[in-house]
Write a sequence for this structure.
């Protein structure tokens, strides 16, 4: 499932993050890549553990934890501290699949990357090119979102960032281990949650059918959750 989550950060928050990020020490992006990905990658990143990246990442995670759409869709077990990338003219990232397992440098724990996410920190008018293209069973989807918007997609997907031809594209990217490993099961739970919320707004949360459906949602999650 590909899901756009608008307004994870407000425009003011994006602007203040960009002020601190733009002044930080950017390095060659291949420092975080796996072997195959490094062959296709041309961009810059903030070093993992850089204090500016840590602070900005914590702000993003705090916003995500308060976002009901993100929580419902990702069912996060662990969110890895966000990383930051920057693509200038002629930079891009060829088709690749992200590494399956990554280490959280703060805790030393390894996580399984079930979901990948990109949070756009540039406005679409700031650059040409730079589309994130994600392939799923229905074909290739290109996204270029407003600053502060997020795209969430299965980490199993082949994806790429097309070369920039004007301006610069700055973004945060990170991975999530979900409580529910299967993308199919997670998507079923998300659809069910959205339908329950919508019905509940019409008939009231205390309607017996809503209470029963909500119970079924939690019982399915209980079946599928891995802690
Ligand atoms: Ni990637």
């Amino acid at each position: 499932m590909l899901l756009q989550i608008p307004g994870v950060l407000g425009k003011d928050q994006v602007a203040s993050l960009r002020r601190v990020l733009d002044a930080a020490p950017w390095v060659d992006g291949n420092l975080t890549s796996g072997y195959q990905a490094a062959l296709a990658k041309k961009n810059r990143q903030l070093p993992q553990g850089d204090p500016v990246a840590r602070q900005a990442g914590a702000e993003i995670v705090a916003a995500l934890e308060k976002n009901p759409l993100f929580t419902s869709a990702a069912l996060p077990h662990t969110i890895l501290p966000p990383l930051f990338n920057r693509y200038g003219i002629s930079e891009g990232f060829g088709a690749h699949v992200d590494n399956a397992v990554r280490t959280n440098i703060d805790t030393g724990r390894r996580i399984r990357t079930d979901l990948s996410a990109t949070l756009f920190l540039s406005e679409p008018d700031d650059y040409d090119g730079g589309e994130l293209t994600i392939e799923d069973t229905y074909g290739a989807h290109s996204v270029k979102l407003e600053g502060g918007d997020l795209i969430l997609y299965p980490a199993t997907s082949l994806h790429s960032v097309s070369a920039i031809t004007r301006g610069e594209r700055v973004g945060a990217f990170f991975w999530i281990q979900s409580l529910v490993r299967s993308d199919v099961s997670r998507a079923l739970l998300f659809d069910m949650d959205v339908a329950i919320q919508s019905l509940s707004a019409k008939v009231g949360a205390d309607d017996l059918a809503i209470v029963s459906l909500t119970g079924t949602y939690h019982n399915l999650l209980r079946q599928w959750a891995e802690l």
Notes: The longest helix spans residues 183-203. The chain is about 35% helix and 30% strand. The radius of gyration is 18 Å.
